[in-house]
Specification:
- The structure is a homodimer.
- Chain A is α/β, with parallel strands linked by helices.
- The first copy, chain A, folds into two domains: 58 residues, Arc Repressor Mutant, subunit A; 185 residues, Rossmann fold.
- In chain A, helix 6 links the parallel strand 5 and strand 6.
- In chain A, helix 4 packs across helix 5, helix 5 runs parallel beside helix 6 and helix 7 runs parallel beside helix 8.
- Chains A and B meet through helix 1, strand 3, helix 4, helix 6 and strand 6 of A and helix 1, strand 3, helix 7, strand 6 and strand 7 of B.
- The first copy, chain A, binds a DNA duplex through helix 3.
Amino acid sequence: MRQEKRERHTKILTALSGASSVRVAELARQFGVSTETIRRDFDELTRGGQLSRTYGGAVRTLDSRHHGEAERQSILLAERQRIAKATVDEVADARILLIGCGATAVQVARQVAARLKDITVVTHSFAVAAAVGVNHLVEVMMIPGLYHPAKASTTGGHAIVFLQSLYADYVILGASGVTQDGPGDSLPEIAAVNTAMMSRAARCVIAADQSKFNLSSSTRYADWPQVSTFVTDAAPPAELQKTLESNRVKLLVA
Amino acid sequence: MRQEKRERHTKILTALSGASSVRVAELARQFGVSTETIRRDFDELTRGGQLSRTYGGAVRTLDSRHHGEAERQSILLAERQRIAKATVDEVADARILLIGCGATAVQVARQVAARLKDITVVTHSFAVAAAVGVNHLVEVMMIPGLYHPAKASTTGGHAIVFLQSLYADYVILGASGVTQDGPGDSLPEIAAVNTAMMSRAARCVIAADQSKFNLSSSTRYADWPQVSTFVTDAAPPAELQKTLESNRVKLLVA
DNA sequence: TGAAAATTGTGGAAATTCCAACAATTGCAT
DNA sequence: ATGCAATTGTTGGAATTTCCACAATTTTCA
Protein backbone atom coordinates (compact mmCIF):
# COMPACT_ATOMS: atom_id res chain seq x y z
CA MET A 1 0.00 0.00 0.00
CA ARG A 2 1.20 3.46 -0.82
CA GLN A 3 -0.32 4.60 2.40
CA GLU A 4 2.33 2.88 4.41
CA LYS A 5 4.98 5.37 3.52
CA ARG A 6 2.95 8.32 4.74
CA GLU A 7 2.10 6.44 7.90
CA ARG A 8 5.77 5.87 8.50
CA HIS A 9 6.43 9.53 7.93
CA THR A 10 3.96 10.59 10.57
CA LYS A 11 5.21 7.92 12.91
CA ILE A 12 8.70 9.28 12.44
CA LEU A 13 7.52 12.80 13.17
CA THR A 14 5.60 11.54 16.17
CA ALA A 15 8.63 9.74 17.49
CA LEU A 16 10.59 12.89 16.93
CA SER A 17 8.19 14.96 18.98
CA GLY A 18 8.74 12.63 21.90
CA ALA A 19 12.51 12.51 21.67
CA SER A 20 15.12 15.01 20.62
CA SER A 21 16.55 12.63 18.09
CA VAL A 22 15.88 9.28 16.47
CA ARG A 23 18.17 6.74 14.88
CA VAL A 24 17.90 5.01 11.57
CA ALA A 25 18.58 1.54 12.93
CA GLU A 26 16.16 1.95 15.81
CA LEU A 27 13.25 3.04 13.63
CA ALA A 28 13.98 0.34 11.06
CA ARG A 29 13.74 -2.29 13.75
CA GLN A 30 10.67 -0.70 15.28
CA PHE A 31 8.77 -0.38 12.01
CA GLY A 32 9.97 -3.66 10.60
CA VAL A 33 11.49 -2.14 7.47
CA SER A 34 15.02 -1.90 6.18
CA THR A 35 17.35 0.85 7.21
CA GLU A 36 17.48 2.05 3.63
CA THR A 37 13.77 2.71 3.71
CA ILE A 38 14.09 4.82 6.81
CA ARG A 39 16.98 6.60 5.23
CA ARG A 40 14.86 7.39 2.20
CA ASP A 41 12.03 8.56 4.43
CA PHE A 42 14.46 10.91 6.10
CA ASP A 43 15.51 12.25 2.73
CA GLU A 44 11.95 13.08 1.80
CA LEU A 45 11.10 14.63 5.12
CA THR A 46 14.29 16.63 4.92
CA ARG A 47 13.27 17.97 1.54
CA GLY A 48 9.92 18.88 3.04
CA GLY A 49 11.74 20.77 5.74
CA GLN A 50 10.29 18.72 8.56
CA LEU A 51 13.45 17.25 9.98
CA SER A 52 17.16 17.39 9.48
CA ARG A 53 19.56 14.54 9.28
CA THR A 54 22.34 13.61 11.61
CA TYR A 55 24.87 10.89 11.17
CA GLY A 56 22.91 7.77 11.96
CA GLY A 57 19.61 9.48 12.57
CA ALA A 58 17.60 12.66 12.41
CA VAL A 59 16.39 15.53 14.57
CA ARG A 60 13.38 17.71 14.34
CA THR A 61 13.93 20.98 12.55
CA LEU A 62 13.44 23.68 15.07
CA ASP A 63 10.17 25.37 14.34
CA SER A 64 9.31 28.77 15.73
CA ARG A 65 7.91 27.18 18.88
CA HIS A 66 11.34 26.11 19.87
CA HIS A 67 13.58 28.48 21.75
CA GLY A 68 16.69 27.66 19.79
CA GLU A 69 15.16 28.90 16.59
CA ALA A 70 14.62 32.31 18.08
CA GLU A 71 18.25 32.38 19.07
CA ARG A 72 19.43 31.22 15.72
CA GLN A 73 17.27 33.79 13.99
CA SER A 74 18.48 36.46 16.33
CA ILE A 75 21.77 36.30 14.52
CA LEU A 76 20.03 37.68 11.49
CA LEU A 77 17.40 39.53 13.45
CA ALA A 78 18.99 42.94 13.13
CA GLU A 79 19.38 42.52 9.38
CA ARG A 80 15.82 41.31 9.03
CA GLN A 81 14.54 44.26 11.00
CA ARG A 82 16.44 46.69 8.82
CA ILE A 83 15.05 44.99 5.75
CA ALA A 84 11.57 45.05 7.23
CA LYS A 85 11.73 48.76 8.01
CA ALA A 86 12.85 49.64 4.51
CA THR A 87 10.15 47.39 3.10
CA VAL A 88 7.40 49.05 5.08
CA ASP A 89 8.70 52.49 4.07
CA GLU A 90 8.24 51.35 0.52
CA VAL A 91 4.62 50.33 0.96
CA ALA A 92 3.51 52.94 3.49
CA ASP A 93 0.79 54.26 1.17
CA ALA A 94 -0.90 50.89 0.77
CA ARG A 95 -4.49 50.32 1.72
CA ILE A 96 -4.54 46.61 0.98
CA LEU A 97 -1.38 44.64 1.57
CA LEU A 98 -0.59 41.02 0.80
CA ILE A 99 2.12 39.42 2.92
CA GLY A 100 3.64 35.98 2.42
CA CYS A 101 5.28 33.71 4.95
CA GLY A 102 8.71 33.26 6.43
CA ALA A 103 10.91 34.86 9.06
CA THR A 104 11.44 38.05 7.11
CA ALA A 105 7.73 38.40 6.44
CA VAL A 106 7.08 38.20 10.17
CA GLN A 107 9.43 41.09 10.79
CA VAL A 108 7.64 43.06 8.11
CA ALA A 109 4.37 42.22 9.83
CA ARG A 110 5.71 43.57 13.11
CA GLN A 111 6.70 46.81 11.43
CA VAL A 112 3.31 47.09 9.80
CA ALA A 113 1.61 46.63 13.16
CA ALA A 114 3.85 49.20 14.76
CA ARG A 115 3.64 51.93 12.14
CA LEU A 116 0.64 51.63 9.85
CA LYS A 117 -3.09 52.02 10.38
CA ASP A 118 -6.32 51.99 8.40
CA ILE A 119 -5.01 49.21 6.25
CA THR A 120 -6.00 45.66 5.46
CA VAL A 121 -3.39 42.94 5.55
CA VAL A 122 -4.09 39.68 3.75
CA THR A 123 -1.84 36.72 4.53
CA HIS A 124 -1.62 32.96 4.56
CA SER A 125 0.88 32.83 7.41
CA PHE A 126 -0.26 32.20 10.96
CA ALA A 127 2.74 34.03 12.33
CA VAL A 128 2.16 37.09 10.18
CA ALA A 129 -1.51 37.21 11.12
CA ALA A 130 -0.66 36.99 14.78
CA ALA A 131 2.03 39.65 14.50
CA VAL A 132 -0.16 42.13 12.68
CA GLY A 133 -3.16 41.25 14.82
CA VAL A 134 -1.81 43.07 17.84
CA ASN A 135 -2.73 46.34 16.17
CA HIS A 136 -6.49 46.68 16.24
CA LEU A 137 -6.44 49.46 13.68
CA VAL A 138 -5.23 47.01 11.07
CA GLU A 139 -7.62 44.49 9.62
CA VAL A 140 -6.08 41.08 9.09
CA MET A 141 -7.60 38.73 6.55
CA MET A 142 -6.58 35.10 6.64
CA ILE A 143 -6.38 33.16 3.39
CA PRO A 144 -8.03 29.71 3.44
CA GLY A 145 -6.33 26.50 2.39
CA LEU A 146 -4.56 23.36 3.47
CA TYR A 147 -2.45 23.84 6.54
CA HIS A 148 1.26 23.43 5.88
CA PRO A 149 2.96 22.44 9.15
CA ALA A 150 6.51 23.29 8.13
CA LYS A 151 5.64 26.92 7.45
CA ALA A 152 2.49 27.29 9.53
CA SER A 153 0.65 28.71 6.60
CA THR A 154 -2.12 27.80 4.20
CA THR A 155 -1.58 26.47 0.69
CA GLY A 156 -3.32 24.72 -2.14
CA GLY A 157 -6.27 25.31 -4.42
CA HIS A 158 -8.52 27.02 -1.92
CA ALA A 159 -5.86 29.59 -1.18
CA ILE A 160 -5.27 30.31 -4.84
CA VAL A 161 -8.96 30.53 -5.71
CA PHE A 162 -9.51 32.87 -2.79
CA LEU A 163 -6.74 35.11 -4.00
CA GLN A 164 -8.28 35.38 -7.47
CA SER A 165 -11.14 37.38 -6.04
CA LEU A 166 -9.18 40.14 -4.41
CA TYR A 167 -6.99 43.08 -5.23
CA ALA A 168 -4.03 44.50 -3.36
CA ASP A 169 -1.81 47.56 -3.71
CA TYR A 170 1.33 45.65 -2.80
CA VAL A 171 2.46 42.13 -2.16
CA ILE A 172 5.44 41.54 0.11
CA LEU A 173 7.17 38.19 -0.16
CA GLY A 174 10.20 36.58 1.37
CA ALA A 175 12.31 34.01 -0.44
CA SER A 176 14.42 31.04 0.45
CA GLY A 177 16.59 31.67 -2.57
CA VAL A 178 17.19 34.53 -4.97
CA THR A 179 18.87 33.89 -8.32
CA GLN A 180 19.13 35.71 -11.62
CA ASP A 181 16.05 33.83 -12.72
CA GLY A 182 14.04 35.26 -9.85
CA PRO A 183 13.06 34.65 -6.25
CA GLY A 184 12.14 31.13 -5.15
CA ASP A 185 10.89 29.13 -2.22
CA SER A 186 12.08 25.71 -1.12
CA LEU A 187 8.51 24.42 -0.92
CA PRO A 188 6.54 24.17 -4.16
CA GLU A 189 3.23 24.60 -2.33
CA ILE A 190 4.35 27.92 -0.93
CA ALA A 191 5.79 28.98 -4.26
CA ALA A 192 2.42 28.39 -5.90
CA VAL A 193 0.66 30.64 -3.41
CA ASN A 194 3.32 33.30 -3.84
CA THR A 195 2.78 33.26 -7.57
CA ALA A 196 -0.95 33.64 -7.07
CA MET A 197 -0.40 36.52 -4.68
CA MET A 198 1.78 38.32 -7.17
CA SER A 199 -0.88 38.15 -9.84
CA ARG A 200 -3.28 40.06 -7.61
CA ALA A 201 -1.12 42.96 -6.51
CA ALA A 202 -0.27 46.17 -8.38
CA ARG A 203 3.30 46.11 -7.15
CA CYS A 204 5.56 43.40 -5.77
CA VAL A 205 8.25 43.78 -3.12
CA ILE A 206 10.66 40.94 -2.47
CA ALA A 207 12.50 41.04 0.86
CA ALA A 208 15.41 38.69 1.48
CA ASP A 209 18.70 38.92 3.30
CA GLN A 210 22.06 38.41 1.64
CA SER A 211 22.29 34.77 2.70
CA LYS A 212 19.71 34.01 0.01
CA PHE A 213 21.81 35.29 -2.88
CA ASN A 214 22.32 32.71 -5.59
CA LEU A 215 20.58 30.01 -3.62
CA SER A 216 18.82 28.04 -6.30
CA SER A 217 17.76 24.95 -4.39
CA SER A 218 14.20 26.12 -4.61
CA THR A 219 11.14 26.52 -6.79
CA ARG A 220 11.15 29.86 -8.57
CA TYR A 221 7.87 31.62 -8.04
CA ALA A 222 8.39 34.76 -10.09
CA ASP A 223 10.44 36.33 -12.85
CA TRP A 224 12.23 39.61 -12.28
CA PRO A 225 10.09 41.64 -14.71
CA GLN A 226 7.17 41.07 -12.35
CA VAL A 227 9.07 42.43 -9.36
CA SER A 228 8.92 46.12 -8.50
CA THR A 229 11.36 46.30 -5.60
CA PHE A 230 13.96 44.04 -4.07
CA VAL A 231 14.91 44.84 -0.47
CA THR A 232 18.00 43.27 1.05
CA ASP A 233 20.78 44.06 3.49
CA ALA A 234 23.89 43.99 1.32
CA ALA A 235 24.87 44.66 -2.26
CA PRO A 236 24.01 41.61 -4.38
CA PRO A 237 26.62 39.92 -6.61
CA ALA A 238 27.41 41.86 -9.77
CA GLU A 239 25.55 39.59 -12.18
CA LEU A 240 22.45 39.58 -10.03
CA GLN A 241 22.60 43.35 -9.71
CA LYS A 242 22.88 43.62 -13.46
CA THR A 243 19.86 41.42 -13.94
CA LEU A 244 17.89 43.59 -11.57
CA GLU A 245 18.82 46.72 -13.46
CA SER A 246 17.96 45.33 -16.85
CA ASN A 247 14.55 44.35 -15.51
CA ARG A 248 14.01 47.73 -13.88
CA VAL A 249 13.78 46.27 -10.40
CA LYS A 250 14.30 48.92 -7.75
CA LEU A 251 17.06 47.76 -5.43
CA LEU A 252 17.00 48.82 -1.78
CA VAL A 253 19.97 47.97 0.41
CA ALA A 254 18.96 48.57 4.02
CA MET B 1 44.81 24.74 31.53
CA ARG B 2 41.57 23.88 33.11
CA GLN B 3 39.89 26.82 31.45
CA GLU B 4 40.10 25.26 28.04
CA LYS B 5 37.60 22.59 28.79
CA ARG B 6 34.96 25.04 29.93
CA GLU B 7 35.63 27.18 26.91
CA ARG B 8 35.09 24.20 24.70
CA HIS B 9 31.88 23.40 26.50
CA THR B 10 30.46 26.84 25.94
CA LYS B 11 31.64 26.78 22.35
CA ILE B 12 29.86 23.48 21.87
CA LEU B 13 26.66 24.90 23.29
CA THR B 14 27.04 27.97 21.13
CA ALA B 15 27.50 25.87 18.04
CA LEU B 16 24.42 23.94 19.05
CA SER B 17 22.30 27.04 19.22
CA GLY B 18 23.26 27.85 15.67
CA ALA B 19 22.53 24.43 14.27
CA SER B 20 20.12 21.69 15.16
CA SER B 21 22.94 19.21 15.56
CA VAL B 22 26.69 19.04 15.67
CA ARG B 23 29.13 16.25 14.88
CA VAL B 24 32.02 14.93 16.85
CA ALA B 25 34.45 14.88 13.97
CA GLU B 26 33.52 18.37 12.86
CA LEU B 27 34.02 19.94 16.27
CA ALA B 28 37.25 18.06 16.82
CA ARG B 29 38.62 19.47 13.62
CA GLN B 30 37.29 22.93 14.38
CA PHE B 31 38.66 23.10 17.92
CA GLY B 32 41.88 21.33 17.07
CA VAL B 33 41.41 18.56 19.61
CA SER B 34 40.94 14.84 19.29
CA THR B 35 37.55 13.26 18.75
CA GLU B 36 37.86 11.51 22.08
CA THR B 37 38.03 14.85 23.82
CA ILE B 38 34.87 16.05 22.16
CA ARG B 39 33.25 12.75 23.01
CA ARG B 40 34.14 13.21 26.65
CA ASP B 41 32.86 16.77 26.56
CA PHE B 42 29.59 15.45 25.24
CA ASP B 43 29.43 12.96 28.06
CA GLU B 44 29.79 15.67 30.63
CA LEU B 45 27.30 17.99 29.03
CA THR B 46 24.91 15.10 28.73
CA ARG B 47 25.21 14.40 32.44
CA GLY B 48 24.52 18.08 33.02
CA GLY B 49 21.42 17.75 30.87
CA GLN B 50 22.51 20.38 28.38
CA LEU B 51 22.57 18.20 25.31
CA SER B 52 21.88 14.69 24.26
CA ARG B 53 24.00 12.45 22.17
CA THR B 54 23.34 11.09 18.74
CA TYR B 55 25.39 8.63 16.81
CA GLY B 56 28.33 10.70 15.67
CA GLY B 57 27.26 13.92 17.32
CA ALA B 58 24.88 15.65 19.66
CA VAL B 59 21.71 17.72 19.70
CA ARG B 60 20.33 20.23 22.10
CA THR B 61 17.97 18.79 24.66
CA LEU B 62 14.46 20.02 24.10
CA ASP B 63 13.46 22.75 26.43
CA SER B 64 11.00 21.20 28.82
CA ARG B 65 9.64 24.64 29.66
CA HIS B 66 7.98 24.86 26.31
CA HIS B 67 6.15 21.60 26.71
CA GLY B 68 5.08 22.55 30.17
CA GLU B 69 3.58 25.81 29.03
CA ALA B 70 0.72 24.33 27.08
CA GLU B 71 0.06 21.89 29.87
CA ARG B 72 0.00 24.63 32.45
CA GLN B 73 -2.58 26.39 30.36
CA SER B 74 -5.20 25.18 32.73
CA ILE B 75 -5.82 23.21 35.85
CA LEU B 76 -8.69 21.66 33.97
CA LEU B 77 -6.38 19.91 31.56
CA ALA B 78 -7.15 16.41 32.78
CA GLU B 79 -10.87 17.03 32.53
CA ARG B 80 -10.51 18.53 29.08
CA GLN B 81 -8.49 15.56 27.94
CA ARG B 82 -11.12 13.13 29.18
CA ILE B 83 -13.78 15.15 27.40
CA ALA B 84 -11.66 15.24 24.26
CA LYS B 85 -11.16 11.49 24.23
CA ALA B 86 -14.85 10.79 24.62
CA THR B 87 -15.59 13.33 21.91
CA VAL B 88 -13.23 11.73 19.43
CA ASP B 89 -14.67 8.30 20.22
CA GLU B 90 -18.00 9.76 19.21
CA VAL B 91 -16.81 11.01 15.82
CA ALA B 92 -14.29 8.30 14.97
CA ASP B 93 -16.12 7.39 11.74
CA ALA B 94 -16.00 10.90 10.34
CA ARG B 95 -14.35 11.68 7.06
CA ILE B 96 -14.84 15.42 7.21
CA LEU B 97 -14.75 17.09 10.57
CA LEU B 98 -15.42 20.69 11.55
CA ILE B 99 -13.76 21.90 14.72
CA GLY B 100 -14.33 25.23 16.41
CA CYS B 101 -12.01 27.16 18.68
CA GLY B 102 -11.19 27.25 22.34
CA ALA B 103 -9.13 25.28 24.84
CA THR B 104 -11.34 22.22 24.72
CA ALA B 105 -11.30 22.20 20.94
CA VAL B 106 -7.51 22.15 21.02
CA GLN B 107 -7.55 19.05 23.20
CA VAL B 108 -9.94 17.45 20.76
CA ALA B 109 -7.57 18.37 17.96
CA ARG B 110 -4.70 16.66 19.77
CA GLN B 111 -6.75 13.51 20.13
CA VAL B 112 -7.70 13.61 16.49
CA ALA B 113 -4.06 13.91 15.48
CA ALA B 114 -3.07 11.05 17.73
CA ARG B 115 -5.81 8.60 16.81
CA LEU B 116 -7.46 9.29 13.47
CA LYS B 117 -6.29 9.14 9.90
CA ASP B 118 -7.62 9.59 6.38
CA ILE B 119 -9.78 12.43 7.50
CA THR B 120 -10.13 16.10 6.70
CA VAL B 121 -10.36 18.60 9.50
CA VAL B 122 -11.76 22.04 8.78
CA THR B 123 -11.25 24.73 11.37
CA HIS B 124 -11.00 28.47 11.93
CA SER B 125 -8.67 28.16 14.92
CA PHE B 126 -4.93 28.56 14.51
CA ALA B 127 -4.28 26.42 17.55
CA VAL B 128 -6.48 23.60 16.31
CA ALA B 129 -4.85 23.64 12.88
CA ALA B 130 -1.41 23.50 14.43
CA ALA B 131 -2.38 20.69 16.77
CA VAL B 132 -3.92 18.53 14.06
CA GLY B 133 -1.17 19.42 11.62
CA VAL B 134 1.39 17.23 13.32
CA ASN B 135 -0.33 14.22 11.79
CA HIS B 136 0.38 14.17 8.09
CA LEU B 137 -2.33 11.65 7.41
CA VAL B 138 -4.92 14.23 8.37
CA GLU B 139 -5.69 17.03 5.99
CA VAL B 140 -6.23 20.34 7.70
CA MET B 141 -8.27 23.00 5.97
CA MET B 142 -8.15 26.52 7.29
CA ILE B 143 -11.23 28.71 7.04
CA PRO B 144 -10.62 32.24 5.72
CA GLY B 145 -11.74 35.40 7.45
CA LEU B 146 -10.81 38.30 9.66
CA TYR B 147 -8.24 37.42 12.26
CA HIS B 148 -9.60 37.60 15.78
CA PRO B 149 -6.66 38.18 18.14
CA ALA B 150 -8.43 37.18 21.34
CA LYS B 151 -9.17 33.69 20.08
CA ALA B 152 -6.53 33.37 17.36
CA SER B 153 -9.16 32.34 14.87
CA THR B 154 -10.91 33.64 11.80
CA THR B 155 -14.36 35.21 11.77
CA GLY B 156 -16.68 37.34 9.69
CA GLY B 157 -18.36 37.16 6.34
CA HIS B 158 -15.59 35.43 4.46
CA ALA B 159 -15.58 32.61 6.99
CA ILE B 160 -19.32 32.16 6.82
CA VAL B 161 -19.45 32.28 3.02
CA PHE B 162 -16.65 29.75 2.83
CA LEU B 163 -18.53 27.43 5.14
CA GLN B 164 -21.66 27.57 2.96
CA SER B 165 -19.83 25.68 0.26
CA LEU B 166 -18.80 22.64 2.25
CA TYR B 167 -20.24 19.63 3.97
CA ALA B 168 -19.06 17.83 7.09
CA ASP B 169 -20.01 14.65 8.92
CA TYR B 170 -19.60 16.24 12.33
CA VAL B 171 -18.97 19.59 13.87
CA ILE B 172 -17.28 19.78 17.26
CA LEU B 173 -17.68 23.00 19.19
CA GLY B 174 -16.66 24.24 22.57
CA ALA B 175 -18.70 26.77 24.51
CA SER B 176 -18.07 29.52 26.99
CA GLY B 177 -21.51 28.92 28.48
CA VAL B 178 -24.14 26.20 28.39
CA THR B 179 -27.71 26.96 29.46
CA GLN B 180 -31.08 25.35 28.93
CA ASP B 181 -31.44 27.55 25.86
CA GLY B 182 -28.32 26.08 24.31
CA PRO B 183 -24.56 26.52 24.08
CA GLY B 184 -23.12 30.01 23.68
CA ASP B 185 -19.88 31.90 23.18
CA SER B 186 -18.84 35.13 24.80
CA LEU B 187 -17.82 36.67 21.48
CA PRO B 188 -20.58 37.34 18.94
CA GLU B 189 -18.16 36.97 16.02
CA ILE B 190 -17.24 33.49 17.14
CA ALA B 191 -20.83 32.59 17.83
CA ALA B 192 -21.74 33.54 14.28
CA VAL B 193 -19.09 31.25 12.84
CA ASN B 194 -20.21 28.46 15.15
CA THR B 195 -23.77 28.82 13.91
CA ALA B 196 -22.57 28.67 10.32
CA MET B 197 -20.52 25.58 11.07
CA MET B 198 -23.50 23.83 12.59
CA SER B 199 -25.60 24.42 9.51
CA ARG B 200 -23.07 22.53 7.39
CA ALA B 201 -22.61 19.38 9.46
CA ALA B 202 -24.77 16.30 9.67
CA ARG B 203 -24.26 15.97 13.41
CA CYS B 204 -23.18 18.36 16.10
CA VAL B 205 -21.12 17.56 19.18
CA ILE B 206 -20.77 20.15 21.93
CA ALA B 207 -17.86 19.66 24.32
CA ALA B 208 -17.67 21.72 27.51
CA ASP B 209 -16.56 21.09 31.06
CA GLN B 210 -18.80 21.49 34.09
CA SER B 211 -17.61 25.02 34.83
CA LYS B 212 -19.71 26.16 31.87
CA PHE B 213 -23.02 24.93 33.26
CA ASN B 214 -25.66 27.65 33.45
CA LEU B 215 -23.27 30.38 32.33
CA SER B 216 -25.43 32.65 30.26
CA SER B 217 -23.21 35.68 29.85
CA SER B 218 -22.74 34.80 26.23
CA THR B 219 -24.27 34.80 22.77
CA ARG B 220 -26.22 31.61 22.19
CA TYR B 221 -25.13 30.07 18.93
CA ALA B 222 -27.42 27.04 18.78
CA ASP B 223 -30.63 25.52 20.14
CA TRP B 224 -30.59 22.10 21.71
CA PRO B 225 -32.67 20.40 19.00
CA GLN B 226 -29.76 21.02 16.63
CA VAL B 227 -27.29 19.29 18.94
CA SER B 228 -26.63 15.56 18.62
CA THR B 229 -24.27 14.97 21.52
CA PHE B 230 -23.13 16.89 24.57
CA VAL B 231 -19.85 15.76 26.11
CA THR B 232 -18.84 16.96 29.55
CA ASP B 233 -17.02 15.78 32.66
CA ALA B 234 -19.75 15.76 35.31
CA ALA B 235 -23.47 15.26 35.53
CA PRO B 236 -25.24 18.51 34.58
CA PRO B 237 -27.83 20.15 36.88
CA ALA B 238 -31.21 18.40 36.90
CA GLU B 239 -33.07 20.97 34.80
CA LEU B 240 -30.36 21.08 32.16
CA GLN B 241 -30.25 17.30 32.02
CA LYS B 242 -34.02 17.26 31.59
CA THR B 243 -33.80 19.74 28.74
CA LEU B 244 -31.19 17.58 27.03
CA GLU B 245 -33.40 14.51 27.33
CA SER B 246 -36.48 16.22 25.99
CA ASN B 247 -34.46 17.38 22.98
CA ARG B 248 -32.94 13.93 22.46
CA VAL B 249 -29.40 15.16 23.00
CA LYS B 250 -27.08 12.28 23.77
CA LEU B 251 -25.28 13.05 27.02
CA LEU B 252 -21.75 11.74 27.54
CA VAL B 253 -20.10 12.18 30.93
CA ALA B 254 -16.40 11.39 30.55
C1' DT C 1 59.35 20.30 44.85
C1' DG C 2 57.09 15.95 44.16
C1' DA C 3 53.28 13.04 43.83
C1' DA C 4 48.47 12.37 42.98
C1' DA C 5 44.69 13.74 40.06
C1' DA C 6 42.76 15.45 36.05
C1' DT C 7 42.98 16.07 31.19
C1' DT C 8 44.09 14.83 26.66
C1' DG C 9 46.07 12.03 22.87
C1' DT C 10 46.94 7.55 20.46
C1' DG C 11 46.06 3.25 18.34
C1' DG C 12 43.46 -0.62 16.84
C1' DA C 13 39.51 -3.66 16.80
C1' DA C 14 34.51 -3.91 16.57
C1' DA C 15 30.29 -1.93 15.41
C1' DT C 16 27.66 1.14 12.75
C1' DT C 17 26.45 3.88 9.05
C1' DC C 18 26.53 5.37 4.34
C1' DC C 19 26.13 4.85 -0.51
C1' DA C 20 25.14 3.09 -4.92
C1' DA C 21 23.59 -0.36 -7.87
C1' DC C 22 20.48 -3.91 -8.64
C1' DA C 23 16.55 -7.01 -7.72
C1' DA C 24 11.98 -7.87 -6.00
C1' DT C 25 7.50 -6.31 -5.03
C1' DT C 26 3.45 -3.60 -5.19
C1' DG C 27 0.01 -0.41 -7.00
C1' DC C 28 -1.97 1.63 -10.89
C1' DA C 29 -3.36 2.61 -15.54
C1' DT C 30 -3.74 1.51 -20.47
C1' DA D 1 -3.69 -9.02 -18.43
C1' DT D 2 0.42 -6.33 -19.39
C1' DG D 3 3.52 -2.78 -18.72
C1' DC D 4 5.10 1.14 -16.18
C1' DA D 5 6.25 3.67 -12.16
C1' DA D 6 6.86 3.84 -7.36
C1' DT D 7 8.35 1.57 -3.30
C1' DT D 8 11.12 -1.42 -0.79
C1' DG D 9 14.71 -4.92 0.12
C1' DT D 10 19.43 -6.69 -0.54
C1' DT D 11 24.18 -6.67 -0.97
C1' DG D 12 28.99 -5.41 -0.46
C1' DG D 13 32.57 -2.30 0.17
C1' DA D 14 34.09 2.28 1.87
C1' DA D 15 33.93 5.58 5.41
C1' DT D 16 32.93 6.80 10.04
C1' DT D 17 32.17 6.26 14.75
C1' DT D 18 32.65 3.99 19.09
C1' DC D 19 34.96 1.89 22.74
C1' DC D 20 38.72 0.64 25.51
C1' DA D 21 43.19 0.50 27.39
C1' DC D 22 47.20 2.92 28.05
C1' DA D 23 50.54 6.64 27.52
C1' DA D 24 51.63 11.55 27.66
C1' DT D 25 50.79 15.96 29.41
C1' DT D 26 49.10 19.35 32.49
C1' DT D 27 47.11 20.85 36.89
C1' DT D 28 46.53 20.69 41.73
C1' DC D 29 48.03 20.79 46.28
C1' DA D 30 50.42 18.83 50.17
